[in-house]
Structure formats: structure tokens, C-alpha cells
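TODO from last week: model tetrahydrofolate synthase.
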Amino acid sequence: MLQTYQDAMDWIYSFLDSEKKLPKNPTEFNLPRVKAMLELLGNPQLRYPAVIVAGTKGKGSTCAFLESIIRQSGLKVGFFSSPHLHSYRERMQINREPISQSQLVDLINEVRPLLEPLDPEIGSPTTYEIGVVLGLYYFATQAIELAVLEIGLGGRYDAINTVNPVLSVIASISYDHTAILGDTLAKIAYEKAGIIKQYVPVISTVQQAEAAEVIAQVAAEQTAPLFIAGMAGLQEQASGVVAEYPLVIVPDQLGLKGDFQMQNAQLATSAALLLRELGFPISDDAIRQGLATTQWPARFEQIANEPLTLVDGAHNGDSARVLLQALKQHYPNRPLTLVLGTSSDKDIQAIIQQLANSATHLITTCSRHPRALAPEKLAELIQQQVNRPVHQTNSVAEALTLAQQLTSAAGLICVTGSLFVAAEARETHGLAQPD
């Protein structure tokens, strides 16, 4: 019997942590094992409807927008996301309240004996799989009315994909985790499109042609009605009919900053409209209020003034490109101090190519995460592309101190390259406390 929150965390991390060392290919994830665990728990995921959201970038923001809309509608909504920024408890939220420490201890004490009959031949669960199972069970015990579930990696083989949703949602697809998901956009899109279920409506943001073709093909194979969330409105792929959004979606009316969030807001709004067609009581005003009040830390988030300091979890070339566009648009002519730290499994050259040339000062750093790339290695990669000095620091706190010394009052500090780095920057500024 676990007694403390630390006992709970020790138990969760006693399993193989696939987030610390990613598998070589997505088939190493074990959906039959997850299904077996859920069956031992009485299939809690069948006790409430759910929306599944996949994608390379924007899936977290899309989930946050959609959760906020559903909550503004007066529904009790569960939200599962990963990775967490500061506390493991962030992964399981109800009405945006993370599960408490005592609730997590009680949850594990209830679940652990139920999982004991798990067939050892099916293999030991991973930490991520255990977390997903706990989250799905927790939502069932709390009698939620709708769940928003963010895919962790890929889609087809992710543990979340054991859920049969009422709606599948696919955010923007670009290159990331190529060693696992494939080295072409089509291969990556195929893994993401694995969340499409037979006859279940699927909605996608506007994708690059290669990805869009794969999504359309998989949707057709599954006889799943396909919708596209575009600038003009929600388009039904089969008929071409466009339903206009119930409001004009513009950046200054969104709770999340950055023009790039418009695409995610359109996708969430489209999802809300389809949910309404499925019978969920989501009003136009709930959509408006939900978009305006959405909060999602470390996404183009300002954490300090003098000098102005932003954090953003951009962790691939495409998200770095979008970040740079937003910096230039919202903070033109401000000298940029770039604090960059990445995970070793990312397309680091693509991130550097997008960001490094625009910075007046370059600082490399690393998070405490096991997959973090060493600052000296990152500096070496930068100097292969940019013939300028690069400052190296061994912690995010050290990097921020140096950045503040190098940056004038009229300048701008941007901390990016990894959600783990962004999280530690927030903690350094006292915006959160890890537990």
C-alpha cells in the first residue's frame, strides 16, 4: 500500500520509461498490453465519450482550446496530455484541475492490485502506458462527460489509441521523430492517421499535400467522414460544403498568443462544431469564451519584462520557423538573445537553420531531462552553420542569468528548443514549482 506521493511517483517510474529513451520504431509500443490492462480495470474508457488529437505541432494548443470550449459549455471535461511541464499530475486534469497528490496515491492503490493478473508473457508495461491507463481510469471514477486525449507520439501505436473516440482530430504534420515515424511526410502522416477509426468522423487542419493525401486515403479506407478546418470554415471533404465559423477567429481574441495559434483555434472550433452535431450542448458563446480564455504554458509565453523574456516549446524545424515569424511580427527590431536547448533525438540542424541567424547573442543550454543534448555539442552544431561566438551554459538558470547580462532593455530573450527547457525557464522565474 503506497503511503506518500513520492511512493506513487517511485511506482510509476519503476517501469521502463520509454519517454527517457524512445523506442527505435513505433511497433515497440504495445497496444495489446494496454488493452489487456484496461480490460482488467473493466474498460473504463468505455464509460465516457472522448476526442483524440494527434499531430506534430499544435496538438497541445488545439487540445487546450477545445478543452476550454467544452468547459465553457458547462460539461465536466477530462484532459490527458504529455509530457508534463512541472508536475506529473498535469497529465490528468478535470476542468483544468490536475489530479491531487492524495488522489494519485489513492488511484494507484486502487488500480495496482487489479493489474496483478496481467499475463507476464505480454511483457511489463512502460511508464507511459501505466500513466495512460491511470488517466483513463481516473476519468471514469470522476464521471466526466467528455475527454480530450492528446496522443503522445505518432498515433497508430500510441497507448491513447486504444480508445474508440467520437471524433478524431489531426493537427499540423511536419518532420519530427523521423527515426521512429519515418523519414518522409507520407510515412509520418500514415502513423498520425492511425487514430482514424471506422465510421468515426475525422477532422484535419490544412496539411501539406503529401500528408493530406495520406489522411484522405486512410479516412476513405475506414469509411470515416473527413472534414478540413480551413480559413473560411469547416469543409466537408466529400461534398465540398463549407460551414462558416460562428465567429471571426483573429489573434487578439485568442487566449494563446501568436498568429500561428489561429490554425489551432480554427481546428478546435471545427471540432466543437462537429461535437455539437453529435449532440453535445456547445453554444457559439461557449466557443467564443473558450477561445478567449484558453491557457497553455510555454507556448509563446511572456515570463518576464526588462528585458522582455519569452519561452516557447518549439522543438522541430517547422515550429522553429513559425516561432521566428511570430517574433519578427510581434517584436520587430528588437535585438534577439536566443537561449537554445534541445533533446538529442530532434532534427537539431533544422532548428538551428531557422533561428540562429536571427540572433544577436546565442546561448546554448540543457534541461535536466536524460535526452537533453550537451550544450557544447549544440554549440558545435550551431557553429557549423553560423560563424559567430556561442556562449555555453550548463543549466537553464545559468543561461537566463547570462542572457539578462547580454540583453539590453530594448532587447528580447527567447528560450526555446524543448518543452523541458521552457519548463525550467518558467521555474527559474518562479512561475511554477516542480513536484
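Done. The mean pLDDT is 94.
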